[in-house]
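Regression check, adenosine-5'-triphosphate case 590:
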Amino acid sequence: MTAGRWHLLADLARLTTRGDRWRAVAVTVMALAIAASAATIGLSQRWLVDSTVHGQATMVLAAVVLGVLAHTMTAACGRIESNLRLYLIERFGILLNGEIVAWSARLPTLDHLDDPRFLDRSSLLRHSTWFLAAGLSAITEVGIAACGLLLSLWLLAGVHPALGLLAVLAVPPFLANRAGLRRVRDARERAEGTSRLEQRLHELVIRPEPAKEALVAGAERMLSERAAQLWRGAWRAEARANGLAGVWQLLGWAVYLSGLVAALAVVSRLVAQGTASVGDAVLVLSLGTQLLAQVNVAIQAAHQVALAGHVTEYYRSLRERARRPHPGRQPAPAALRHGITLRDVSFGYRGQEGVLRRLDVHLPAGSTVAVVGLNGAGKSTLVKLLSGMYQPRAGSIEIDGVPLHQLDPASWRARLSAAFQDAVRFQVRVDEAVRIGDLHQLDPAAVPAAVDRAGATEIVEQLPEGYRTQLGTMFGGVDLSGGQWQRLAMARACMRPDPLLLLLDEPTAAMDPAAEHLLFERFARIAADAARSCGTITLLVTHRYSTVRDADLVIVLDRGRIIEQGRHEELLARGGRYAELYRLQAKGYR
Ligand SMILES: Nc1ncnc2c1ncn2[C@@H]1O[C@H](COP(=O)(O)OP(=O)(O)OP(=O)(O)O)[C@@H](O)[C@H]1O
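Current build output:
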């Protein structure tokens, strides 16, 4: 184990005991008491045998009392200790899980969510909180088992120094165990990607939205069989590694057991020669078998520590990533005065290039900007860059002349409002689903006002319990139509009173034309008010050209490039790609 991991385990040890120091101390005391009583049992047995041989009745009685006390202490302390240990492990697991989720959510951009390595590691980490927690308590267990071992060896060496060699024979089971467990750990790590895929396939069959497509296509059987196949594959690989680890362990134990048999032969000889008592032989038998148990405990605990030590590397890297200060310190401006300027901006997702190429455009403060283009042109990607979810690979985005990466990401996001085509269907109460748009708004009137701005009041009034209606059937609530969900998403986007940038990425794709028309009329008024008060820019991504006629600026994207920009009339008059697409769509409606 590297110094870094020890460092981290020490960190985690502090975390585990945080707020529960006394329980942690109690566990350690109990474990020490168990280790001491194991040796006492051996001693009482020797005492019992020797006093019986010498006919010392009082001593026999005292040895029996000591033995009973030691056994009682082992049983009682064992029970209390294991309960306390479980309590600490579970408590720590909850704490750690909360931290992992909070750290992942704190990362300022989204590119880590496109990285399978990151996803595998964080999934492994979330599945391993028990290992981490158990690994920590295992550190004390290893220490205490080592103390117990030393005590037993000291007593054995007291009978004959050669018996102390049993300690050396405990090394092969340790090494064999380590080799086997390394295989198990590697198998688990290799299987993590497969188990994520298996989980995903499983969700496609058990969740209502994807399940309807799977059912229509008749693919549900194929999907569940594929999921089961993946699960079996991952399980077999782990089972194989476990089997091999078992073989290694057996080999290690075989070495130790031969040593124990040899130790018994030595002590029998000593008894025959009269240099050791029968009690000594009983002590060797008792301690030798207990030593076996102690070594076993130490091996299990060392296994836990090794597993925890490995996963802690991921824990540390996630923690460091979440704590790394963002270079952006400046707060977002109170109002936009000039606007947002993209200078030679290029971008590609992980391992890709050319999703956006050399964009140069100025979005004036207070304007309404429409972005159009064919599927895959890069429209949503532009929205993600403007919201700071991803950073340009080249060029810069400037907010009133300040590069976006110099702004504090939280402060910039607090001044954004957004509604997306694939809006999240929050399965919570209606008022909560809307309030998520701005959790800082404490005024109870803010939710109905936002719902009204999004033209969704009628929808809410028709629900059985109005704003208190539970949404989504997964939790016994009501389901909405696609367009109704989108209206709630729009209401969420209306929660912030003074956004600097209102991002609408095909927010009305699921709405009927009448609803869309009404909504855009309302939004035009809202945008105009916001533009007057703080220079808000409204950026609308759409495939419906009829909705962009009134925009101050239309940007036409084609395979990541801006091929045209200007007002609707200018672009029509130019007779280029925009005019072609506009006329094509208008013809379809005639
Ligand atoms: N998270 C991602 N990781 C990798 N590639 C992505 C990701 N998101 C989008 N892309 C790719 O980037 C390109 C642009 O996608 P984008 O969603 O920006 O297009 P769009 O113009 O909004 O398309 P549409 O009109 O279909 O919504 C596409 O080729 C897409 O495959």
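Comparison notes: Residues 114, 349, 352, 355, 373, 375-381 surround adenosine-5'-triphosphate (CB under 6 Å). The chain has a mean pLDDT of 84. No diff flagged against the previous build.
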